[in-house]
Automatic annotation (TrEMBL):
Organism whose genome encodes this protein: Exidia glandulosa HHB12029
Domain of life: Eukaryota
Signal sequence coordinates: 1-19
A Pfam family annotated for this UniProt entry: CVNH
Protein name: Cyanovirin-N
Lineage of origin: Eukaryota, Fungi, Dikarya, Basidiomycota, Agaricomycotina
Keyword Protein transport carried by entry: no
Keywords: Signal
Residue ranges occupied by any Cyanovirin-N domain in the UniProt entry: 23-124
Amino acid sequence: MRLFASLLTSTLALVQVNAALGSFDASCQSITYTKSGSDIVLAAGCAKSNGTYYWTTISLNSCIGNFNGQLNCGSGYASSCSTCNILNGNNLECQQCKDTSENLKRSVSWLPICIRNEEGTLKCH
Ligand SMILES: *[C@@H]1O[C@H](CO)[C@@H](O)[C@H](O)[C@H]1NC(C)=O
């Protein structure tokens, strides 16, 4: 029970830190994902701190990399991952990301960790 309570506390702290850093899922609306060749483009209306929303887009390939078969913050995943889709809102899932031994791995990355809303503009973390 104490472990659960401390896990919950650290999860809440993490959510607060993400919101403070401008995690886009909390401060953007009308989020869409559009395939563009092997890449995917995220578009959304994102709030500035004064409450005005601005239309902004970012290429997932500029913010997500493939690290030995695992998607994470970086760039260039689209050249070594394939069969990629958006799952459950804001997760990028690729069925096949090459690791350093050329094996194909499935990987999922929660995009708000790697992409933020900075004053109405989407940017990579
Ligand atoms: C928010 O700031 C922008 C300029 O950065 C301005 O054009 C806009 O009118 C402001 N909105 C409000 C509600 O103050």
